[in-house]
Amino acid sequence: MNLTLYKMTPLEEWITEKYLAHSISTPEDIDVHRIAEVFGGEVAYLPTKSHARWEDDGTSEFMIILDSRLSEPIVRSEFFHEICHPLRHVGNQKMLPKAFRDLQETQATQFQLYASIPFFMVQELDMPVYEKDIPLYLAHVFQVTIALATRRFNQIKARINQEEYSQRLASYAQSMYSKADPANWSDETKRLFITAIQRKLERDQGVVIR
Asked: Hey, where are the domains in the chain?
């Protein structure tokens, strides 16, 4: 898997810039309290379902409540989902139309993947030789669930495959264009082409090119 073919989205680039600006450059630097502070919020552990609290009053302060009854990998995974809401969304979630809530949940899921397993950190890892071992390795390194690590790995692989396919198409198109350019034709090809045009004109218009 050629990681150099992976292209980050604008959201990924924004997260990367935030991390690097605050010296978060390795998996060991990814601490939920530190990440929350970077983005202007706080974290609290309570025996309740994980969720985010914030006010749409122009301030950037927010609180991420994490379920203290869950294991650390699950809690971290939920943290990176919940933190997207105060950072990227507005409005009372319960009052929004279902379609809009679903869209925001999808966006939060994407944010979760990018923020919990940043690609710029993945690039620096010594990845396992066999692809089947990579999700477990990522889950261990970034201390998230295997399910989340698997989704992130599949996302990275799919984007690399798409770029490989795009490059093959571009190469093929360039090759076909090169072959179609008369400047690249052999003398024999040019002669046959001229002969074919002459015969077509003779048939269609009754004239002869001399």
From this structure: 3-164
